[in-house]
Amino acid sequence: MSVEEGSPVRRRLFRSVLALVVLVTAAVVLPQSPAAAEVRGPWQIQGIQSRKCVDVPNGTFNNVQLTIYTCKDKGNQLFYIQEIYNGEYNIWNIQTGKCLTVLNAETTNNTPVIQYACNIGLNELWTLPADLTIRNVKSGKCLTVQNNGTANGAKLLQFTCNGGQNQIFTWARGIEGN
């Protein structure tokens, strides 16, 4: 049986090969899905200037501004990180399941860092460079303790990275389930 140019058999074969090429290309080019990426933690995120931990005060609602507070190894101070794209991470609280997010995807200084339902927007993706800052992917600005605060309840916001001690955080292994 010969397959003539333009025949239904040849068109089906061409479509099958084309579909296979598209699938293979998609598998190679598309980023790893969040479900497949490794989750690490839980961690306490501690400011080196204050020796206090990033804290989710007052509940599980969206738009709660994050603060620092005396470290207690409780769920509102424990976070998981998950690489979403190459070197870009979601950071979310184990008690609320919500992500560290820059309010309204703003790129200006002094914008609050809040918790919000995770949706992999650029305003909730962070890089973790070797200088121990936590940098927002969309704005390029650093997680910062407002006004160099060291007291419980000092608010977290984004600000231009400047090497200040209020922008440097360490990660300590937390105990899950508290």
From TrEMBL:
<keyword id="KW-0430">Lectin</keyword>
<feature type="domain" description="Ricin B lectin">
    <location>
        <begin position="40"/>
        <end position="172"/>
    </location>
</feature>
<dbReference type="InterPro" id="IPR035992">
    <property type="entry name" value="Ricin_B-like_lectins"/>
</dbReference>
<dbReference type="InterPro" id="IPR000772">
    <property type="entry name" value="Ricin_B_lectin"/>
</dbReference>
<protein>
    <submittedName>
        <fullName>Ricin-type beta-trefoil lectin domain-containing protein</fullName>
    </submittedName>
</protein>
<dbReference type="Pfam" id="PF00652">
    <property type="entry name" value="Ricin_B_lectin"/>
</dbReference>
<dbReference type="GO" id="GO:0030246">
    <property type="term" value="F:carbohydrate binding"/>
</dbReference>
